Amino acid sequence: MKEEMVSILVIFETNSNLNLIERLRSLLEVLCEIARDDYKCPRFEIFQNTYAPEKFFLMETWQNQKTWEKYISSAEFNSAMEEINKILVYPIQITMLNKLSQA
Hints:
Strand content: 25-35%
Structural class: alpha+beta
């Protein structure tokens, strides 16, 4: 039986300091590279709130939950997250999503 793909929404928020916003964007791009290059994540997109630029959203779709768990257990991921956590206003929010329809 084929394992189902896993979709995840992750929310990050720093304060409105432009240097911190740029630092967070840079670190999220590192996570994106790790996910795509090392774990072959088919969808890893970074979004920034137009009206609140200190808020970022990751939309991830993984081959399966096991691959996602390997990714979040990796040294590279944890190193980037250690830096990210230093500049966040709130803890990250991770939501596992069930796809109900497709356009």
